[in-house]
Amino acid sequence: MPRGSKAKYTEKQKDQAESIERSYERKGVPQSEAEARAWATVNKQSGGGNRSGGSGQEKSKQAKAQSRSSSAKRAAASRQGIPRSDSLERETKDELMKKARSRNIPGRSTMRKQELIQALKKAS
Q1: Of 86, 89, 84, which is closest to residue 115 (Cα–Cα)?
Q2: 28 band by pLDDT with thresholds 50, 70 and 90
Q3: Half-sphere exposure (CA, 13 Å, Cβ side) for 111?
Q4: What pLDDT shows up at residue 62?
Q5: How many other β-carbons are positioned within 10 Å of the β-carbon of residue 98?
Q6: How far is residue 62's CA from residue 73's CA, in Å, rounded to a whole number?
Q7: Model pTM score
């Protein structure tokens, strides 16, 4: 018998698994094997149980607009070829680290965010 609770599955998914299971049983597959195959099929088709949260959460209209605006500003700055200091300040440490890596700045792995900004300004 398959492991795990089926509580997070929708009724539609449960009905689908039951239908698939009956189909396998009519073909002579043992009940436990039919159930396992049925749930494997449902998982493959729908990605598993209906889970709340996760990456499916939608951004608010305001958050989307802010992301677009910030992306457009960064794109405009990069088209000019001059990294603006305030644009570097708004980037995360990981983003700064990637830029430092691409410019092969020595000692970047031990630098703090402000040190990375200074090193990137010097390198450009």
Answers
A1: 89
A2: very high
A3: 20
A4: 82
A5: 13
A6: 17
A7: 0.39
Q: At what angle do helices 113-123 and 93-102 cross, to 10 degrees?
A: 30
| 59 CB-near residues (< 8 Å, 6+ apart) | 67
State the Cα–Cα distance between residues 124 and 55, nearest whole angstrom.
Answer: 36
Across 75-95, b (16+ Cβ under 10 Å) vs e yields: eeeeeeeebeeeebeebeeee
Nearest CA to 101 out of 80, 119, 79 is that of 119
CA 97 to the chain's CA centroid? 21
State the greatest distance between any 2 C-alpha atoms of the chain, in Å, as a whole number.
73
User: Rounded to whole angstroms, what are the CA distances from 102 to 11, 71, 76, 79?
Assistant: 50, 20, 20, 18
Summarize pLDDT for 67-108 with one digit per residue, the tens: 787 777 777 777 766 555 567 888 899 999 999 999 999 999
